[in-house]
What we know:
By secondary structure, the protein is mainly β. Helices cover 11% and strands 53% of the residues. The chain has helices spanning 2-24, 58-61, 95-99; strands spanning 77-91, 103-115, 121-135, 142-151, 155-164, 166-185, 198-216, 222-241, 244-258, 270-282. Strands 1-2-3-6-7-8-9-10 form an 8-stranded antiparallel barrel. A two-stranded antiparallel sheet has the order 4-5. It starts with a helix and ends with a strand.
Amino acid sequence: MIRKYLWLGCLALVGLSLGTVRAQTEPGAPLVPGPAPALLNASVPLTSTTKPAPGLSQWIVGTDPDCCGPLSDQTPLRTELFIRSGFSFVQGDGQLKNSLDDGWAIEGGARELLFNDRGDAAWTLELGLLNIHNQSDNGPPITLLNFPVRSAQQGTIIVPRQDVHVSAYNRTFVTLGAGREWYLFGSANGTRDGDGARWRIGVDGGGRYGTGKVEFFEIRHRTDVIGGIYGAIHSDVDIPCGCCTFYGGLRAEWDYTWSDILEIQNKSDVGGINLMFSIGVRF
């Protein structure tokens, strides 16, 4: 009797063992060894709240030279932001020119440069905002005919004739132009890993459209829509700095402005020579 119970107990243990093996593997599926699980470095946390130290980014200081990609035939287009300021010398003839002293010009804007494969020449397209201001201390009299004058007591009245003297002339333009650049030393290639300055020269020209305001000693100011053209030459020195290139230079510019702000019987066209200092950045 005891042997019978022992025999039944052995059969039960064998049956339980077979059931466990069947549960671990799918019937008919061979055991295929898989890749070892990736080990985690316990010294590096999965998440971190540590903030980087303050300072200039790698993009600016150039420690990551591939941040913007190389200048090549695949990426020949570059953008420049500029500020120019300098002296404006009045040229030409006519009543308005004879009334003005030399003044000041300031301009800001952006340029697009389309480089060749070597990076030593580029076509340019420029859009800017320009202001030229000229004072007048002792100009000749200018006769205005049949012009409106506002009066607090009588409203707007027509004055048949009056001699006036110009005290200031201010012009504000939107400028659009195109030009060409040449590098005499170096090129725009390799500015992200270069270690020296580069010298370039260029020419450009275009048109201007804006508003003019003449102020007088005797009456209120007069305004008019004005237009003009210009041509310029310039010379700049490029200073590579990581992904950006800073530059500074000189610009000489001739311009001519058409206007009838002093009425048609008085010549109001004005020419000028502008000598300006330029600073900017290319990226």
